[in-house]
Amino acid sequence: MSLNATAQLPPLLISPKQLASLLGGPRPLRILDATWFLQMPGAAPRNAHAEFLRGPRLPGALFWDVDAVATRGDSVRNLPHMMPSTSIFAEAARSHGISRETHVVVYDTHGIFSAPRTAFTFAAFGHPAISVLDGGLPAWIAAGESVDREALAADPTVDAAEYEAPTLRPGWVRSFEEMLHNTQLGSNAQTVLDARPKPRFDGHSPEPRPDMAAGHIPHSLSLPAPSVLESQPKQEGEGTYTRMKPQHELWKLVQSAVGEQGLEKLRHDASAKGALGVSLTCGSGMTACIVWLALQQLGIDGALYDESWAGWGRRAHAGEAPVEKSDA
């Protein structure tokens, strides 16, 4: 089956009920567990791949290693999970049995945390059908859907698919040089939203990574990723999981972050075909994609500053980039 211009594409954010209705359907479907854990100093490390193999997981799911499907090394200042090259991405898609016709659904075990990063990657490479499972594995379980609880010794094997190296969509990933230039444009600058917690944005709490300045990119605005999510109690185990807030609440949050004039600018840019009215940043390019997913629910396209503060903060610490702090 091939997708064409008239084919109805699935929504970017999909509910457990919607996904369940697609299982066994005519469109090729691949479900990916894109769970990733932020390893904090002093905390017990967690291995997302090992937890995937141990289960539970969605039926037929494969594991997508966010840190492995990435560009690594000196060319990206040894920063984590940087956008993969077209060849790395295409090879990962092929090995996961994904073709251009495949509807790819990504989820994580947090609810919504790391899955949007993988969805952004597919979207940035122009993959036609990509969805994030709203609420992830916990929401799937809460909805009463079946899960695979069998412990696996190794990843499931699938037949490789054909996937030609794609082209990265223009403007979807911002470089340091572009972001630095943007700080000098005054009223003509593009809006920049920072998804880190507000105390880190303000520069009032220490950075968790070494050799990094505190504060934010000059003229950027704060929209913490957790603010666009709501918590729900888990059906299995203790704790909560996250899912996306309703659209009307997202509008209020964005307006609160950018102001009325800023909101009108975003609306104007969103109405202009192909315009990306905002750049998104966070600690390492992960939670910025949660805000990207939220803005998509409002019809607003956003670009990703891939280095995020892991890059800018180190540059600022070395005196290579400007930094601002909020008043106490």
From TrEMBL:
Q: Where is the composition biased (Basic and acidic residues)?
A: 195-210
Which portions of the sequence form the region Disordered? 195-242
Which Pfam families does this one have? Rhodanese (PF00581)
Q: Which UniProt keywords apply?
A: Repeat, Transferase
Any one of the GO CC terms:
mitochondrion
Rhodanese domain: which residues? 25-149, 186-321
Cited InterPro entries = Rhodanese-like_dom, Rhodanese-like_dom_sf, TST/MPST-like
GO molecular function terms here?
thiosulfate-cyanide sulfurtransferase activity
What is the top-level taxon of the source organism? Eukaryota
Alphabetical list of CDD domains matching this protein: TST_Repeat_1 (cd01448)
What is the official name of this protein in its record? Answer: Rhodanese domain-containing protein
